[in-house]
Amino acid sequence: MNMAQSVPALRVTGLRKSFRRPAVDGLDLRVEQGKFYALLGPNGAGKTTTLRMVAGLMQPDAGAVSIFGIDALADPVAAKRITAWVSDEPMIYDKLSPTEYLAFVAGLWGMDPAVADRKSAALLELLELKPHAHERCEDFSKGMRQKVALAGALVHEPKLIILDEPLTGLDARAARLVKDALLARVRQGCTVIMTTHILEVAERMAERIGVISRGRLIAEGTLDELRKQSGSINTSLEDVFLALVAEQETAQ
Amino acid sequence: MSAPGSWLWLARHEGRLALRDLRHLMTGGGRWRVRNVAITFVLLAIGLHLIAFGVVARHADMTLAVGTRGFTSITGSLLLTFFLLLSQALEHVTRLFYGRGDLDLFRSSPAPLRRLFVIRVLAIAVSSVMMSFVVALPAVNVVAALGGLRWFSALAVAIAAAVATAGIALSLAALLFDTLGPRRTRFAAQVASAIVGSAFIIGVQAVAILSIGTLSPRDFFDSDLVLNHMPGPESPLWIPARAVLGSAPDLALTILGAAVILVVPMVLLSGRLGGYAIATASVSHGGSRPAWGARLFRTASPRQLLQRKEWMLLLRDPWLASQTLMQLLYLIPAGLLLWRFYGDARGALVVLAPVLTMAAGQLAGGLAWLAVSGEDAPDLIATSPISPLYNLSAKVEAVLIAVFAIFAPFLIGIVTHSWTAALVIAGAILLAAGSSTLIQIWFRSQARRRYFRRRQTSSRIATFAEAFSSVAWASAAALAANESWYAIAPAIVAMLVLAGTWSIRPR
Ligand SMILES: Nc1ncnc2c1ncn2[C@@H]1O[C@H](COP(=O)(O)OP(=O)(O)O)[C@@H](O)[C@H]1O
Ligand SMILES: [Mg+2]
Known about the structure:
The complex is a heterodimer.
Chain A: H1 2-6, E1 10-18, E2 22-31, E3 36-40, H2 47-54, E4 62-67, E5 70-71, H3 76-81, E6 83-86, H4 98-108, H5 113-126, H6 142-155, E7 160-164, H7 172-187, E8 191-195, H8 199-205, E9 208-213, E10 216-221, H9 223-230, H10 237-251
Parallel strand pairs in A: 3-8, 3-9, 6-7, 7-8
Antiparallel strand pairs in A: 1-2, 1-4, 4-5, 9-10
Helix pairs in contact in A: 4-5, 4-6, 5-6, 9-10
Chain B: H1 7-27, H2 34-56, H3 68-98, H4 103-107, H5 113-147, H6 152-180, H7 182-211, H8 217-222, H9 224-227, H10 239-244, H11 248-281, H12 292-298, H13 302-315, H14 318-325, H15 332-340, H16 345-373, H17 378-382, H18 388-415, H19 419-442, H20 455-458, H21 460-481, H22 488-503
Bound molecules: adenosine-5'-diphosphate and magnesium ion.
The site of magnesium ion has 3 residues of chain A, from α2.
């Protein structure tokens, strides 16, 4: 147990990726097991690019990614087996029903069909998709599609869940369901990393917060630690965030 | 200004929408540049007139005296045009009911829906007439220039035919609605449109093969076999043909008939059209059926899982299925050829081998595009614990298995005649299909599946490469079926095409 605790759920060192300009610029990140970790940053800071490299969707120019001690660049399949990815634009199959989609995902992760069935039924219930379980996803709203995508990410019991802006475009009720589902997973020992531009969500849910600007991690810690770092005690995360980003911009 | 909801106001609304569509069609969504559009238009006009010259110039001096032989070929050409227009009109009518667009807005407004539908049906007739201009005007110009202005009566007949197609399409759609219900009508109408569009060509070819053994529609209309079955020159069957040649009473009858065919269904049905449109709005695509797909997925290995998913997505999308599989309608004449020459198959095989190979190459290209570029959830697949190579090979297999399943009946038919020929053709099908699949993999670029038709413009290189390799493999198949060693030459060309395409693939 001690041994397992010492291995971080995610460790990123010296991660780099350039398009025309550097998008991720020597980023280091460490997320301990069982934490809810939020990545904040202004638009274009490199959050999505970072997470896509972590999820194995994009090859970094340099750096290392280690997921539960597995070198994700050297052995991507092993890393993917314990990881789930949810993008901001829910990509699911229009012509499959949620039940079928979950069966397909479970199959991709090689789950036992009986176990998968049980988990899929429970998730559909939890995310209030049960009434639509056998309808094709093509008529679903953005929020419903996002919930299906999330169910797909949870059904194979990943140890690490990576989400990129999972709450954009969701109504209050759907957002609440998604947040609750994620918090429940964290309580069960899962690690969640999520980007968001809704500071309030990060403030309320995340145990640790990382702030990215121009492809680098400029601050990291609990909300209190961030407050101290920015020198503005008793202020909201919004003030802290703006102060940190402004500080870095003037430094450059 | 016209009052909102009035006939004129609705017509202007339609006109604006039509203009916008036309602009999009001509500029491909880019900016509207008068110069570019004018150049495109002039080049298109010149091209069409050149083609028309080649086809109809020698008929410019034809008069009413030509009798049955001339009437037959004129009626044949008219029918060809008519089926083409009808296929278009059917698509438009389907869109009338199923294209959501602004219908919801109109339904929630006080503007009379019935009036809107009458205007929209008229708009379909107008677009059909425009289409008939594209088809008929170059030919009419050519014969009029060579044989006199009297030929413009032919244009009037083409317009009448176009007007009639709108009425027929409307009646057919209403009939489908009442018999099949809103959910199946869309698919049925799309299939009907595709079949109607190709039916005439196929029908003529099929009859020609059965009776004479050639593949050209023109030879068929000129053959004595047909002429002996046709009625005399006084028959009412020839009214449109006589109208084309300038007979005034026949022209009046044709125009009157077309008007009746359009107006009667429009008046009778316009009240019900709104109801149809409302019915389509409440169609849920999936319904609440048990998830048979889930059961198929549960029992599958990862490889089978990926393949079953591909097939399921295709089969559940009637539009895509018809877009890909409809090309196969053109194989019906090939099947007939095989059957007809069953006794002495050598000659038939030399024709069949390239036709089947070509079709397999094209079909595989479409299916591979759907499987590789048209993947709806690329992130899911890429973050799953399945290696990219495994995923790709499963998809290639899915495409090749589907191609072979479709061509199996032909191969079985050939096997009973000659093992070697069947092997040669099966090999050629595999090579052509495999080549197209590889090209699609090299040139993959994520796209929505509904842009299936636009894939050809998005990568012209891939489209040309696919066509060249299919043609080369088809020639190789023809020569091999003829037991000629020269087959090696086009096979080498095909491989060079592949190598060249590979070397310029995007990375
Ligand atoms: N595929 C791409 N091609 C070119 N530039 C990209 C691509 N993806 C991201 N970028 C650029 O990289 C930078 C970081 O983008 P991103 O990671 O999406 O930021 P964030 O998610 O923090 O808003 C931006 O400047 C963006 O324009
Ligand atoms: Mg982003």
